[in-house]
Design goal:
Elements lengths: L5 E3 L12 H12 L1 E7 H10 L9 H12 L2 E4 L10 E4 L3 H11 L3 E5 L1 H7 L7 E6 L8 E2 L10 E8 L4 E7 L1
Helix pairs in contact: 1-3
């Protein structure tokens, strides 16, 4: 996210969020440990437009993530999509209940991607940990990382890590 808390700019662009190789490798390594990835529609479309089609001449680290992303089981939450691909399952209704069920059935790490999807889960206590990557840019507007909440969510800082292009802050729910 930007320093002022946005995940994209006012036009929906994320062109300001180009990770360095160390950060990209961190994401590749982290992604291997995820049991299932939960995507909102916009994030899924963004990822599906690029990662299954990484050019042959792209850096190896990007080709590796493309392979990881296409192989990883994903659940895509959307009321408008009619089909999904690349080891994905489409869910059209009741994200909160579906995520509760997935958490009860699974014993591994689930990743939630997409601000709208996360915003629907946060008030219901379905997020156990937040990994925030803060980039050195102030956007002045866009999609906020966090929704407006009726109650505070107490967190405990569990880890920090510095990369050339971002600082990672990992918080767990207290």
């Amino acid at each position: 996210m930007s320093l002022d808390g946005y995940i994209n700019d006012r036009d929906g662009s994320i062109d300001w969020s180009n990770p360095d190789d160390e950060l990209h490798q961190f994401h590749n390594d982290r992604y291997r440990d995820i049991e299932i990835s939960l995507h909102g529609r916009r994030l899924y479309e963004l990822m599906a437009d690029y990662w299954p089609h990484v050019p042959e001449d792209a850096p190896p680290i990007q080709r590796e993530f493309g392979r990881l992303w296409t192989e990883k089981p994903k659940v895509v939450f959307s009321r408008t999509l009619t089909e999904v691909h690349w080891n994905s399952t489409l869910v059209g209704e009741n994200a909160v209940e579906q995520v509760r069920r997935l958490k009860a059935e699974g014993d591994g790490v689930m990743e939630v991607g997409g601000a709208t999807l996360a915003a629907s889960l946060i008030p219901h206590g379905l997020i156990d940990e937040y990994q925030v990557f803060v980039l050195p840019v102030v956007l002045g507007g866009g999609t906020p990382m966090f929704p407006l909440l009726d109650e505070r969510i107490p967190l405990r800082l569990a880890e920090t890590r510095h990369f050339d292009t971002a600082v990672m802050l990992r918080y767990v729910v207290d």
